[in-house]
């Protein structure tokens, strides 16, 4: 049996096996995005646009009104930025209006909001203070309420959900100083001892960890007689003996974020606090993230809306060369990009959220695409706003106010948004995660052909099965509705922009994407997983096609339900035209790129071949190890845990 000081040493293959075992492998429900990657444009899965039930919408709107009033009167975003802390009174107020329980069922004292209205609430809160948005999101999207809802026992739900709905803040603890997106090397242990587990280890970047009352902790249970072992999820009281918050971390942005380093030394946790069976921890974490990932793009939508408002107001009053800067094409193009992309981001988030609420479709790829696309595009939107504002965009809101101008925190937004490309799966990890799901159908039929551990007989059998699959599948990628001039005619009503042409493009291009993926599989076979540049571009194309589809479907929804349908069609049209240019560039870079040359340069950089290029500078970095020591043991630091009571 491995003790608490055992640090796992794993090969690349073992690490992949751990990740693969934790992946949700069955597809019991249809998936629009999965079909899209396979060259099948299933518009029927997203159109007509799903809608919330009247009672759900009414309950959601009532809470949004209450939350808006709270945000306008009780949250001072500038104060939080200045003092790098959310005032206790704000957190107490959020508890009072039920914001901690937005996603918790009403029978446990929560508000029971749908995913759609939960995301609208996060967009609203995040617009006044991204730090407050992050606190609520970390508590409910990935904190204890979600895994309890999906995997908790009735007793666990009765015990903890009422607390989480009204008084207790939760945190999710997976990352360690030496473990990021490779959980096979998880070093925190939970050793069985009678009716308890004893947890030892150090967790890094514990969002909400500094103020948490309850935590979900991922720890490795050793495998021995009577214990399956493996990475397991535990509910831990933050005030337990042996739990120490050793540091409150400070970041480029999100200055009010209560994020820390948490040490566990001989922390006793009852077996009743284990969520799910031993070894199910990673699966619980990944399943929680499937819909939990929608919270980040929701706040990105809020950021896009604010950027559009500031760009509109500023660009109409700031004059250069005798006319407002908005009238200059160089600035106008940026404003058009911000407006069109914000429309598409909201379309992606609302569609994915409503599908999550209906539970008719499997949205794991849609949620991942929303997170990937939202975080990348919101960063570009904020960057363009800073550029439109010029020197004022780089100046802090406090400095602007001090010299008598409107305190517009554009540079703060840029800093606050930057983490979204890293949080809850970096863009690079999201590319690989989505690519793995996108090529799942190929691996299901051809995986044994490229598996080095399979015998020649297994490979021959797999080859025959693959031959049958591709003989049926490949001919379907040759032609489709996208080549018919009148296909999707409902999306070109009189007096509106023509969105049918974009849907035909999406249909044609999804088949082209599937053909490209098949060609790459045949060309590289087992080496496909190392072609991360290629896979990233495949995923980015799929993200653009999903966003185009969502934008068109949303425009049609607004045409039939709102007064500004014509304007929505115009925004969707412009977005799709911009998106198509990006897609064509990505297709060109699938086969014409510097990936092979880049690998050679990287080898040279790491071997010191180009170290002469670093001459002439002074490194201002301090001393110390690149990765802090995380050896288990008693703490030597002061406990900076400060529960809000």
UniProtKB/TrEMBL annotation:
<dbReference type="GO" id="GO:0033539">
    <property type="term" value="P:fatty acid beta-oxidation using acyl-CoA dehydrogenase"/>
</dbReference>
<dbReference type="GO" id="GO:0050660">
    <property type="term" value="F:flavin adenine dinucleotide binding"/>
</dbReference>
<feature type="region of interest" description="Disordered">
    <location>
        <begin position="623"/>
        <end position="645"/>
    </location>
</feature>
<dbReference type="InterPro" id="IPR009075">
    <property type="entry name" value="AcylCo_DH/oxidase_C"/>
</dbReference>
<dbReference type="InterPro" id="IPR046373">
    <property type="entry name" value="Acyl-CoA_Oxase/DH_mid-dom_sf"/>
</dbReference>
<keyword id="KW-0274">FAD</keyword>
<feature type="domain" description="Acyl-CoA dehydrogenase/oxidase C-terminal">
    <location>
        <begin position="279"/>
        <end position="437"/>
    </location>
</feature>
<feature type="domain" description="Acyl-CoA dehydrogenase/oxidase N-terminal">
    <location>
        <begin position="61"/>
        <end position="166"/>
    </location>
</feature>
<dbReference type="Pfam" id="PF02770">
    <property type="entry name" value="Acyl-CoA_dh_M"/>
</dbReference>
<dbReference type="InterPro" id="IPR013786">
    <property type="entry name" value="AcylCoA_DH/ox_N"/>
</dbReference>
<dbReference type="Pfam" id="PF02771">
    <property type="entry name" value="Acyl-CoA_dh_N"/>
</dbReference>
<comment type="similarity">
    <text>Belongs to the acyl-CoA dehydrogenase family.</text>
</comment>
<keyword id="KW-0285">Flavoprotein</keyword>
<protein>
    <recommendedName>
        <fullName>Probable acyl-CoA dehydrogenase FadE10</fullName>
    </recommendedName>
</protein>
<dbReference type="InterPro" id="IPR050741">
    <property type="entry name" value="Acyl-CoA_dehydrogenase"/>
</dbReference>
<dbReference type="InterPro" id="IPR006091">
    <property type="entry name" value="Acyl-CoA_Oxase/DH_mid-dom"/>
</dbReference>
<feature type="domain" description="Acyl-CoA oxidase/dehydrogenase middle">
    <location>
        <begin position="171"/>
        <end position="267"/>
    </location>
</feature>
<feature type="region of interest" description="Disordered">
    <location>
        <begin position="1"/>
        <end position="26"/>
    </location>
</feature>
<feature type="compositionally biased region" description="Basic and acidic residues">
    <location>
        <begin position="9"/>
        <end position="26"/>
    </location>
</feature>
<dbReference type="GO" id="GO:0003995">
    <property type="term" value="F:acyl-CoA dehydrogenase activity"/>
</dbReference>
<dbReference type="InterPro" id="IPR037069">
    <property type="entry name" value="AcylCoA_DH/ox_N_sf"/>
</dbReference>
<keyword id="KW-0560">Oxidoreductase</keyword>
<dbReference type="InterPro" id="IPR009100">
    <property type="entry name" value="AcylCoA_DH/oxidase_NM_dom_sf"/>
</dbReference>
<dbReference type="GO" id="GO:0005737">
    <property type="term" value="C:cytoplasm"/>
</dbReference>
<dbReference type="Pfam" id="PF00441">
    <property type="entry name" value="Acyl-CoA_dh_1"/>
</dbReference>
<dbReference type="InterPro" id="IPR036250">
    <property type="entry name" value="AcylCo_DH-like_C"/>
</dbReference>
């Amino acid at each position: 049996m491995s003790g608490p000081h055992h640090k796992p040493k794993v090969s690349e293959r073992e690490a992949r096996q751990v990740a693969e075992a934790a992946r949700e492998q069955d597809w019991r429900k249809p998936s629009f995005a999965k079909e899209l990657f396979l060259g099948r444009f299933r518009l029927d899965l997203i159109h007509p646009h799903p809608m919330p039930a009247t009672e759900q919408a009414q309950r959601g709107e009532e809470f949004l009104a209450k939350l808006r009033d709270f945000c306008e009167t009780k949250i001072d975003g500038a104060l939080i930025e200045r003092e790098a802390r959310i005032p206790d009174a704000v957190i107490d107020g959020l508890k009072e209006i039920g914001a901690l329980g937005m996603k918790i069922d009403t029978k446990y004292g929560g508000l029971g909001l749908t995913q759609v209205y939960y995301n609208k609430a996060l967009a609203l809160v995040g617009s006044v203070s991204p730090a407050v948005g992050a606190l609520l999101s970390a508590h409910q999207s990935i904190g204890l309420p979600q895994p309890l809802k999906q995997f908790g026992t009735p007793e666990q739900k009765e015990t903890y959900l009422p607390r989480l709905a009204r008084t207790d803040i939760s945190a999710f603890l997976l990352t360690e100083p030496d473990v990021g997106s490779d959980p096979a090397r998880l070093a925190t242990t939970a050793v069985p001892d009678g009716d308890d587990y004893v947890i030892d280890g150090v967790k890094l970047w514990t969002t909400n960890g500094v103020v948490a009352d309850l935590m979900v902790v991922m720890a490795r249970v050793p495998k021995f007689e009577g214990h399956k072992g493996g990475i397991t999820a535990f509910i831990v009281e933050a005030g337990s003996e042996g739990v120490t918050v050793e540091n409150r971390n400070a970041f480029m942005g999100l200055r009010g974020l209560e994020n820390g380093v948490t040490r566990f030394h001989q922390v006793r946790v009852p077996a009743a606090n284990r969520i799910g069976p031993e070894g199910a921890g990673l699966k619980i974490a990944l399943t929680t993230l499937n819909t939990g990932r929608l919270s980040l793009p929701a706040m990105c939508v809020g950021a896009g809306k604010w950027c559009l408002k500031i760009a509109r107001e500023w660009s109409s009053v700031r004059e250069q060369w005798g006319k407002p800067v908005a009238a200059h094409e160089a600035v106008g193009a940026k404003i058009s990009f911000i407006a069109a992309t914000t429309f598409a981001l909201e379309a992606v988030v609302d569609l994915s959220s409503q599908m999550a609420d209906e539970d008719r479709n499997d949205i794991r790829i849609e949620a991942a695409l929303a997170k990937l696309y939202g975080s990348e595009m919101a960063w570009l939107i904020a960057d363009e706003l800073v550029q439109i504002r010029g020197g004022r965009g780089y100046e802090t809101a406090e400095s602007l106010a001090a010299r008598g101008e409107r305190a517009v925190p554009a540079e703060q937004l840029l800093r606050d948004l930057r983490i979204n490309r890293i949080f809850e799966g970096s863009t690079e990890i999201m590319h690989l995660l989505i690519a793995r799901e996108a090529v799942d159908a190929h691996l299901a039929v051809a995986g044994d052909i490229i598996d080095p551990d399979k015998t020649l007989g297994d490979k021959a059998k797999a080859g025959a099965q693959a031959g049958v699959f591709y003989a049926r599948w490949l001919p379907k990628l040759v032609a489709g509705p996208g080549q018919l001039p009148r296909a999707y005619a409902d999306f070109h009503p009189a007096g509106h922009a023509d969105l049918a042409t974009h849907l035909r493009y999406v249909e044609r291009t999804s088949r082209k994407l599937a053909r490209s993926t098949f060609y790459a599989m045949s060309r590289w076979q087992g080496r496909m997983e190392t072609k991360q540049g290629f896979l990233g571009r495949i995923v980015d194309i799929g993200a653009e096609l999903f966003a185009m589809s969502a934008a068109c479907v949303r425009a049609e929804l607004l045409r039939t339900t709102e007064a500004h349908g014509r304007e929505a069609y115009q925004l969707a049209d412009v977005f799709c035209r911009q998106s198509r240019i990006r897609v064509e560039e990505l297709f060109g870079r699938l086969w014409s790129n510097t990936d092979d040359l880049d690998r050679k340069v990287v080898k040279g950089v790491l071997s010191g071949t180009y170290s002469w290029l670093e001459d002439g500078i002074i490194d201002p970095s301090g001393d110390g190890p690149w990765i802090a020591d995380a050896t288990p043991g008693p703490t030597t630091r002061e406990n900076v845990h400060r529960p809000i009571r």
